Amino acid sequence: MYGTIWALLPPIVAIVLALITKEVYSSLFLGIVVGGLLAANFSPIGALDTIINDGLISGVADAWNVGIFLFLILLGIIVALMNSAGGSAAFGRWAETHVKTRVGAMLATLLLGVLIFVDDYFNCLTVGSVMRPVTDGHRISRAKLAYIIDATAAPICMIAPISSWAAAVSGIVDESVMSGTELFIRAIPWNYYSLLTLVFVVGLTLLRFDYGPMALHERNAQLNGDLFTSGETGGSAEDVASHPRSRVIDLLLPVLVLIVCCVAGMLYVGGFFSGVPFAEAFAATDASVGLPWGSMIALLFTFLYFFARRLLGFKQAMGCITKGFIAMVPALLILTFAVTLKNITGILGAADYVYGVMDRASAGLYKLLPAIIFLVACGLAFSTGTSWGTFGILLPIVTKVFPADSTLLIIGVSACLAGAVMGDHCSPISDTSIMASAGAQCDHINHISTQLPYVLTVAAVSFVNYLIAGFVQNVWLCLGTGLLLTPGLTLPPRA
Question: Is the pLDDT score of 390 beyond 60?
Answer without folding.
Answer: yes
